[in-house]
Specification:
- By secondary structure, the chain is an alpha/beta fold.
- It has one domain: 3-Layer(aba) Sandwich (Cytidine Deaminase, domain 2), CATH 3.40.140.10.
- It has four helices and eight strands; from the N terminus they run βαββαβαββββα.
- It has an eight-stranded mixed beta sheet with strand order 7-6-5-4-2-3-1-8.
- A hairpin with a 2-residue loop joins strand 2 and strand 3.
- The longest helix is centred in the N-terminal third of the chain and has 14 residues.
Length: 178
């Protein structure tokens, strides 16, 4: 991965990607859903353009509310990486769901966290909450603020940091995404 700051200032999230992730999580019940997120860095802002659902190799009921397991299929990870070559985008993080636990890394998540300097999106279906976390390394996470890519998504709450032209920055291949 190219040079980028140690941690993003915030995450610029495409509403469509977030919706797709939450929808995938709902469909996966009673298992946790997981997937990869695709995006790019702009200085110290990490933009998430797309959520790509992957098979959960550790699928099983989330019996203790949030410490269920997920394991992204490494084959799908490699495949996606290959597909993105030369596109100006890369796999910048992962996403998974908690059925009832909070939208934060569980003890199991921390113990199993792999790739350092990786974005984690976690949705809690029970809490109806979506949060972004930065995995520094070895199970150490810090919370990240989420902003929406298109000003119209959350114009009232997030009008400060989201330029009106945000969607022109990188959606050359996704025309009509808004
Ligand atoms: Zn988890």
């Amino acid at each position: 991965m190219a040079d980028h700051p140690p941690a993003p200032r915030h995450v610029l999230l495409n509403r469509e990607a977030a919706d797709r992730f939450v929808q995938t999580a709902r469909v996966a019940v009673p298992n946790e859903a997981c997937g990869l997120v695709v995006g790019w860095w702009d200085d110290d802002v990490l933009t998430v353009e797309r959520f790509v659902a992957t098979r959960n190799r550790a699928a099983g009921p989330d019996e203790d509310g949030g410490s269920g397991q997920f394991e992204i299929d490494p084959q799908m990870h490699l495949q996606l990486q290959r597909m993105l070559r030369g596109s100006g985008r890369s796999i910048v993080g992962c996403a998974h769901s908690h059925l009832s636990g909070p939208a934060e890394p569980s003890a199991v998540d921390r113990a199993n966290a792999g790739e350092p300097r990786f974005l984690w999106l976690i949705v809690s279906l029970g809490d109806k909450d979506l949060k972004a976390w930065w995995h520094e390394s070895e199970g150490r996470f810090s919370p990240l603020a989420i902003r929406w890519m298109h000003a119209s998504d959350k114009a009232d709450a997030l009008s400060d940091g989201v330029p009106a032209s945000a969607d022109a920055a990188g959606s050359d291949e996704t025309g009509g995404a808004a």
